[in-house]
Amino acid sequence: MNIFFVVGGEAVTPPLSGTILPGVTRASVLTLMAEMGIRAEERPVPIEEVLDAHAAGNLTEVFGVGTAATVAPVECIRYRERELRLAVEPQSSISAQVRERLEAIQTGRAPDSHGWLMRL
Q: Which residues, 6+ apart, have CB-to-CB distance to 87 below 8 Å?
């Protein structure tokens, strides 16, 4: 599973590396966000940045993406003695919008302009 942080309206996710594996869902989410006009940046995300953004009220959303979960909001992050609680807004969140768009393509409710689906 990969993770996305929404800071100041922009999605940030760690770049692919030895510990961040390439995933179809991650790539699909990045593609859909670009199409939806949601800025997404791939760069290292230090925990200090996450803690600071939360403290400043700029961390509005965190979500995981992966094959089993598709797109799943994160409600709480625990780091050492700290606990970051995040509000999960079902319809207005970036994660909900991206999940809806991805599921619409997967179920045939929206056209697959990417060639992601295979008829069996």
A: none
When the pLDDT of each residue in the chain is averaged and rounded to a whole number, the result is 91
Spatial separation of the C-alpha atoms in residues 117 and 105, rounded to whole Å: 8
CATH of the structural domain 2-106, one choice from 3.40.50.720, 3.20.10.10, 2.30.120.10, 3.40.50.1970 = 3.20.10.10
What is residue 119's predicted lDDT score, i.e. its pLDDT?
Answer: 81
pLDDT below 70 — which residues of the chain?
none
| 89 in Cβ contact with 96 (< 8 Å) | yes
Query: Taking a C-beta distance cutoff of 8 angstroms, is the pair 36, 11 a contact?
Result: no
Handedness of CA 41, 51, 89, 109 (dihedral sign): positive
List residues bridging with 76 in a β-sheet.
85
pTM: 0.90
